[in-house]
Amino acid sequence: MKIINIGMNHETAPVELRECLATDPDNTARALALMRDLECIKEGLFMSTCNRVEVLITTEAAREAKTSVISLMAKLGNMPEESFSSNLYTYEDIDAVMHIFRVASSIDSMIVGEPQILGQIKEAYVEATREKTSGVILNRLMHRAFHVAKRVRTETEICEAAVSISYAAVELAKKIFHVLEGKKVLLIGAGEMAELAAKHLMAQGVSSMVVANRTFERAVEVAGLFKARPVSFEEIGVQLLDVDIVVTSTASKEYVITYDQVKNSRRKRRNRPLFFIDIAVPRDVQPEINDLENIYVYDVDDLKGVIELNMAQRQQEAVKAERIVREEAGKFEKWLETLAVVPTIVSLRNKADSIIQAELEKSFSALGDLTPAQKEAVRTLTRSIAEKVMNDPIVYLKKKAGRESLNTYLDVTRKLFNLDQNNNQGV
User: What is d(CA 261, CA 277) in angstroms, rounded to the nearest whole number?
Assistant: First the structure.
């Protein structure tokens, strides 16, 4: 059984390519359904965020599974395989384990230490368990990933040194305006990223903020947190006439801000500069808007320059986090190795149980009338004897896990205890 991770992220693929796979919010369910129908994939998990798209699987047919995953991604993005295959990375076995540990710990994020990725991985795992595509190996792997992330957060200062995408967006706005005091902001979207952006903007002293969301009730809720003014989605065009900064973070499949919409607002704005900071994937702001005079558009890839400013301190903590990842990956690898002995141990225990049951039936008929308590005492005694007899060979087999000689010991054990015969009633 192999563990394979195939994906693309902010380092290997531009936002134009990543958003093809992130456009449809139903893609996760579709991906898992497609994986469930593939015989070559035993377990599967699909993760799609603004900065990465990854498929994590277990398989006994690695070549066929890799081909199937790439084909699956092409279907989800409605694009030919050759348009993105060169942007993919592939990790196998312990490298795949270490990769998912790094991702969960935010070592592999655009912004090292950002907290959102762990929540996104947990959501992907919950979806996989709901769709029944996660099994013994991925269940264990994901729970260990969550444990690693917790260790990294508590044993390093990687989160203290980190900034979020939203924070980076505000840092970019400060570079543009020098100071944000007195500036008017339109916040489009009311999710976690939008709330973080609003929090950072208010801390920088913006004079007013307007919050727009497709669900007006949600806009009211978020606006109330920051003493902002809620507006409906239909009012965005009017708001463009008055604001200085627009921060967008929605899950819309279509552009929320269009070229014509902004072009028509320029005359009434009297050519005052207008800055769009688009932290959504797929993008909310039509890229051509950047061609208009005094209109500036920045997307998530543009934030890389801002993020790099604090890289040195974060990377120093990432070195400590990497040590934790390697340590935990070693533990997981040892657990994987023990899986090879599990079928033999299960067979051994099953045979012991069947022998116990058969012998108890014979004994009870010969012992005459026993009280329920006496019968239970006999059952406990026989089980205890069997467990003690089996303990040494089971412990011995576990110690041999991962060694080249393991198959020899498994074969000898199965022959000694006659585990491959249909009749398990006698030794």
Answer: 16
